[in-house]
Design goal:
The protein contains one helix and three strands, in the order βαββ. By secondary structure, the chain is an alpha+beta fold. The chain has one domain. It has a three-stranded antiparallel β-sheet, with helices on one face. The relative contact order is 0.37.
Length: about 60
């Protein structure tokens, strides 16, 4: 098992609950998320930047 630091841009959603689900779905494409955080919000482009640590099976 290895850990990786990743970042992603996600479109803003209408509710925080929807945003959380979209973020977790996107992160699971890269591995199993250990932790993640929204590090910036661009209201003009309606995007959030997410940084995360995920694990992947080797």
């Amino acid at each position: 098992m290895t850990t990786h630091f990743i970042s992603a841009e996600i479109n803003l959603q209408e509710t925080p609950t929807e945003l959380q689900k979209v973020i977790e779905t996107e992160l699971k494409k890269q591995g199993e998320p250990l932790r993640w955080a929204i590090t910036s919000v661009d209201t003009e482009q309606q995007k959030v930047k997410v940084e995360a640590v995920v694990t992947q099976e080797t």
